[in-house]
Design a protein that fits this description.
By secondary structure, the protein is an alpha+beta fold. Helix 5 packs parallel to helix 7 and helix 5 packs across helix 9. The N and C termini lie far apart (about 55 Å).
């Protein structure tokens, strides 16, 4: 059988399940670390419960994804996950979910592995959202998940450092309320309000205009140019203020 005939016959198996996101729908990609519990607890000795070195690698990986060929309007990272909001008119690869998932998982895994100096893998899934309100709710969801996980992590690792086993530490805080966890930390000398905001609320990224200073050697004078640059916000607000921030970015 000739190549063209083979190509026509077999390519359909690759594309039979292709889905293209229609224009007019928002796309949010969520990228998660695969097997990161082992990677961060056993393979590498990261500081618990949060390590600035690990945070910095996630930050640099997120910035890389915002510059890897897609127009991303907003990005958010917490723990070992990254969420990316595509521009509503982004049309790369025909908005094919198969391509977007594979490219983003590959780019993330490659960049983070280079930064770590070891193999690390990420998976990717897409949310197709019909309007701005659903997009805002998506990022509010991840933002609140960060706060919930952060509070639990600080309680858990406080107990582990006090000699409790993994099972004992988990059982002690299992099913307890937010107020209980806050009070537990406070009674043990930790004011959760004083913990850095990036640990509690994650970090947001968006494109913004910044003024860059230069120098004209011919005229021997300073010059100023406005350029687009990634703005990182590690002091994200909560509740309505965060919602308002998202509205400004998405609009």
């Amino acid at each position: 059988m000739k190549f063209n005939d083979l190509d026509k016959k077999l390519r359909i198996y690759e594309t039979a399940n292709d889905y293209n996101v229609p224009l007019g729908f928002y796309i949010v990609a969520r990228i998660d670390g695969r097997g990161f519990t082992k990677l961060t607890k056993k393979t590498h000795d990261f500081e618990k419960p949060f390590d600035p070195k690990f945070r910095d690698m996630m930050v640099e990986t997120t910035k890389h994804l915002m510059n890897c060929g897609f127009k991303i309007n907003y990005a958010y990272t917490q723990s070992d996950e990254i969420s990316l909001l595509f521009d509503l008119n982004e049309g790369s690869f025909g908005r094919k979910t198969r391509k977007l998932n594979s490219i983003l998982a590959g780019e993330t895994s490659a960049k983070f592995s280079l930064l770590l100096g070891d193999l690390a893998a990420f998976d990717c899934r897409l949310s197709v959202l019909p309007n701005k309100e659903e997009v805002i709710d998506y990022f509010r969801w991840r933002h609140q998940d960060s706060q919930r996980n952060s509070l639990e992590a600080h309680c858990y690792w406080f107990l582990r450092k006090k000699g409790f086993s993994a099972r004992e530490a988990s059982d002690k805080i299992l099913g307890t309320s937010t107020s209980f966890k806050n009070e537990f930390l406070f009674e043990n000398g930790i004011n959760y309000n004083d913990i850095p905001n990036w640990q509690k609320r994650g970090i947001g990224f968006y494109m913004g205009k910044v003024t860059k200073e230069g120098f004209n050697p011919i005229k021997k004078e300073k010059t100023f140019a406005i350029r687009n640059e990634i703005i990182m916000n590690s002091e994200l607000p909560i509740k309505d203020e965060y919602t308002n921030l998202l509205r400004e970015i998405i609009l």
